[in-house]
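Q: Convert this sequence to structure tokens.
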Amino acid sequence: MKEIDEMDMPGFLRIRAWSANREKAQKAPKVRFIDEVWGNLEP
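A:
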């Protein structure tokens, strides 16, 4: 219980929000050329 009382809650929430935003940005769709998506197709 002592750890909970001494915890920096706004700082903890700020770090969790930063982590969630970073993860969301990594999962976002990225711009790709058609060659990268379907590289095995022949013209």
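The chain is about 65% helix and 0% strand.
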